[in-house]
Amino acid sequence: MWRYVAGGVAALLLATAGILLFNSRARPPSPVAARPQAAVAQETPLPDAAPEATDRTREQKRFDRYDKDRNGSVTREEYLAQRRKAYAKLDVNHDGVLSFDEWAVKAETKFAAADKDKSGAMNASEFATTAVKRKTRIGCPPAAAQKDEDS
């Protein structure tokens, strides 16, 4: 009986040693690579204070886009103007009534443009092209340019 216990303990010790050995080799290199001392010495020091944010917030800028007459208030007509433009684009026959077919034209057009191989179904890469394109902030350098500066 003691042989089975000793064999089980030995097997557990071997398995533990194997796991530890495997994990020590599988560790990825540190994401923070050591830089030479000369590069660290040439960097400019950080400013004492954080830069101030602009007075105009994102919501204020959005408000200003709707407030066409710049009187400090958004009227019902100013608010609905954007909706009317979008509705007019969808109302193809201009009868003031949006049918399902008129509403679905945009979705069908988007699907047809994404389905490059015209198979009637989108694969993962084709589907990825249908994602809503987000606007980027003006003044932010592209990620590639930031990496070049860091090097």
TrEMBL record:
InterPro entries named among the record's database cross-references: EF-hand-dom_pair, EF_Hand_1_Ca_BS, EF_hand_dom
Biased composition (Low complexity): 31-42
Keyword Repeat applies: no
Tree of life domain: Bacteria
Gene3D superfamilies referenced in this protein's UniProt entry, alphabetically: EF-hand
Entry keywords, A to Z: Kinase, Transferase
Composition bias type Basic and acidic residues, residue spans: 53-77
Region Disordered, annotated ranges: 31-77
SUPFAM superfamilies cross-referenced by the UniProt entry: EF-hand
Molecular function in Gene Ontology: kinase activity
EF-hand domain ranges (all copies): 54-89
Protein name per the record: Histidine kinase
Species of the source: Sphingomonas oligophenolica
